[in-house]
Structures are given as structure tokens and as C-alpha cells.
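Lab manual, section 2.4: Encoding a predicted structure.

Procedure: take the sequence of the chain (208 residues), apply the prediction step described in section 2.3, and record the output as C-alpha cells. A sample record is shown.
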Amino acid sequence: MTSRTTTPARAALLAAGMLVMTACGTTVAGSGAVADPSPVPAPGQSTDYAAQAAAAVGRHDKLFPEVAALCEGKASVAPTSSAAPDDLPTDPAARKYAENHAYKNQAALTPAAQCRGDAHAARIKAALGGSDGKGAPRTAQELSGLLTGMGYKVETGDVYASSTGSLSFVLSIPESGPCVTGHVSPPVSVQAHGVYMEGGCHEPRGGH
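Recorded output:
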């Protein structure tokens, strides 16, 4: 009699447990909580890269309002010109050289990105003391501290010294880009540029 009365009860409990798991997701072992199922993208849904880029520029403008004011109204549409095979030299040897060094090509900048990059380059150059570099940092640590204090994110390898002690830096402008590369030893030079085709702001050291 005991087995006949307990079996239906156990079956009911199992059924109730299955309903809970079906409705709420999978229980995380040992936590007592129910994990949400992985979201499934809606059919045809795609990432809005333009909206993401606009949001990034907005965050940049809050960080650097003086740059935003200088570049207000600049077009942010992508350049229509691009490197094409017809742009390569016609001489076979020169053409082969250009193809082998294509990894050093940089992405074209929109007018808005170029404006932001140039404004940041001028801002940094002024902080370094202009072209003659009077009062510029003399060590990588000092230069890193200066750039960080100006609101830039300095990653490992972004500030470095050559074998002769000349200081250089490579930065990605926070949130919106582009890249800014500078050489501190007089004459000081700071310029903006697009990312390299192989990715990142640092010039690639290898090719094919």
C-alpha cells in the first residue's frame, strides 16, 4: 500500500519541477538561483555601428569639450576615396614593393576624425613646449604621467625611448579615435593618423 500511495506524489513533484525549469530557466547548482537563458537575437537583427560610433563621439566630447567645440559641424561620413589596385605603381618591381608593404597603409579619416586628431595633436604639442620642446618630459615615466594627466589612456608600450634616448609615443584618442603619434626630442612633432590596416595605432613591424 505504501508504494501505491507515494508513487503518484513523487510523480507530481517531478512534474512540477519540470514546469519550473521550463518556465524560468536552468537552476545554477549550489546557488539556489535560476540563471536566465541566453538571449536569442531577433531574426534579421544587426548591430547599428553608426549609432555606436555616434555614442562614442558623444562620450569623447564630454571628456574633451574644447576639442568638441573646435570640430563641431565637421562631417563624420566615411571618405569615398580608397586605395585601389589602379593606385599602385605600374612598374612591376615598384608595384610588388607597394603590395608587400600594404600592411603599413592607414585607414582614411573622416573630416570629423581628422579634425579631432589634429586638435589633440596641437593640444599635446603645446603641452610639450611647442616645436623646440622646452620643458618637455625627459623620461618615459614623465611623459606617460603628462599624457595621463591630460586625459589620455597610456597602455604598455605607448611611450618608449629609442636607443639614443629619444622619446616617442603612440595614442588612441579615447572613445572616438583616431591615433596620434609624437616624437618628443626636438624638433617636437605630433600628428594624427588612422589606424593601420592590420589594426591598432602602432606601426606594424612585419609584413609579407
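Check your result against the sample. The radius of gyration is 28 Å.
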